[in-house]
């Protein structure tokens, strides 16, 4: 770490490259949806369904019966559910084991080394069977309240 | 969303996310790791760039798939709230990934590396256009010339209200300050 007393320098021989305000120069991307051409390609949102061919472990289910899950939807195994192990994939049993404590879809993917899209399919099956519960994250449609922001500030302070 | 009434069932927490963007090597994962309660995890998404959701064998040759690694960390705020920090791939060609990631994000930290400042331009452009609240954190690398925040602000043509802070992404205290600056910025914008 360079000492901070180097800080009050002057007579700059160093020049930082300049960004044009508003990202003026033309770029192929990123393009916000609102500014897209009249008939835009469908954006790759969560509703686009699995972007990889569902694995055999997902039993060929497609997104038709997939509960909408986000990367940070938090999942927890249902406490009093009776699990019929024969009806589930081994990966689903591992998910239930892992989700005794709340885990996000991203965490499940990382811990079990299963791609996010496949985790979503396996999880939505568990949700449909009532073996797991999920909560959608805060979104633009359900923005955070002041209280939540304060809780976040307090939580970061405590680190 | 599935839910069942049960007296014994623990409530499922809600999650929030903050994005950490910046060029390759700007220190995104370092920053995430310095404040995360878990060692940063990595999840890989295989994305089809050319055509989404098309499951047709014809034209397979035309598609290109990209594996995008996302590093993320976790801060448990309370029993009912978890905060995730996602390091987002900095390259412009991953913009489709940013779309999904920025959806519902509380805000973003743009990590600037003054040795290669242009590597954060795309991130600044993106958050500016999408109206995602963000702060710029200048990661101070050893041996690199140290710029003042105002010099970086000027080079990035930033709105004067956008905070620019110097940081050492390796230290928790420094990264905490960046996070607090961002959340305060979000609070200000909410009040405005």
From TrEMBL, chain A:
| InterPro entries, sorted | DUF742
Q: Where is the composition biased (Basic and acidic residues)?
A: 1-13
Query: Superkingdom of this entry's organism?
Result: Bacteria
Chain positions covered by the region annotation Disordered? 1-57
Q: What is this protein called?
A: DUF742 domain-containing protein
What organism is listed for this UniProt entry? Nocardiopsis coralli
Automatic annotation (TrEMBL), chain B:
Signal sequence, renumbered to the chain = none
The family database entries (CDD domains) matched by this protein are listed as: Ras_like_GTPase
A Pfam cross-reference name: ATP_bind_1
Keywords linked to the UniProt accession: GTP-binding, Hydrolase, Nucleotide-binding
Instruction: Report if keyword Transit peptide is assigned.
Output: no
Give the family per the record: Belongs to the GPN-loop GTPase family.
Write the protein's name: ATP/GTP-binding protein
């Amino acid at each position: 770490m360079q000492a901070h007393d180097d800080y009050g320098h002057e007579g700059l021989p160093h020049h930082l490259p300049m960004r044009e305000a508003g990202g003026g120069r033309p770029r192929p991307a990123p393009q916000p949806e609102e500014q897209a051409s009249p008939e835009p390609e469908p954006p790759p949102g969560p509703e686009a369904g699995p972007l990889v061919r569902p694995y055999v472990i997902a039993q060929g289910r497609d997104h038709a019966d997939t509960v909408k899950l986000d990367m940070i939807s938090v999942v927890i195994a249902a406490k009093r559910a009776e699990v019929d192990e024969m009806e589930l994939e081994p990966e689903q049993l591992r998910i239930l084991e892992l989700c005794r404590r709340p885990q996000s879809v991203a965490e499940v993917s990382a811990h079990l080394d299963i791609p996010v899209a496949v985790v979503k399919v396996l999880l939505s099956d568990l949700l449909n069977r009532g073996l797991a519960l999920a909560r959608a994250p805060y979104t633009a449609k359900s923005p955070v309240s002041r209280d939540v922001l304060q809780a976040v500030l307090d939580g970061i302070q405590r680190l | 969303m599935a839910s069942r009434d049960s007296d014994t069932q623990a409530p499922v927490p809600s999650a929030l996310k903050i994005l950490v963007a910046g060029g390759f090597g700007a220190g995104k994962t370092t920053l995430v790791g310095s404040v995360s309660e878990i060692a940063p995890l990595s999840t890989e998404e295989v994305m089809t760039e050319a055509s989404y959701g098309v499951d047709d064998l014809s034209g397979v040759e035309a598609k290109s798939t990209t594996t995008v690694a996302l590093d993320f960390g976790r801060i448990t705020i309370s029993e009912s709230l978890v905060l995730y920090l996602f390091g987002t791939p900095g390259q412009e060609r991953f913009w489709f990934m940013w779309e999904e990631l920025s959806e519902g994000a509380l805000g973003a930290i743009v990590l600037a590396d003054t040795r290669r400042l242009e590597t954060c331009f795309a991130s600044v452009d993106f958050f500016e256009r999408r109206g995602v609240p963000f702060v710029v954190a200048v990661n101070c690398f050893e041996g690199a010339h140290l710029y003042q925040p105002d010099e970086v602000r000027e080079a990035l043509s930033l709105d004067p209200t956008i905070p620019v802070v110097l940081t050492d992404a390796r230290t928790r205290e420094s990264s905490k300050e960046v996070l607090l600056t961002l959340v305060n910025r979000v609070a200000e914008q909410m009040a405005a």
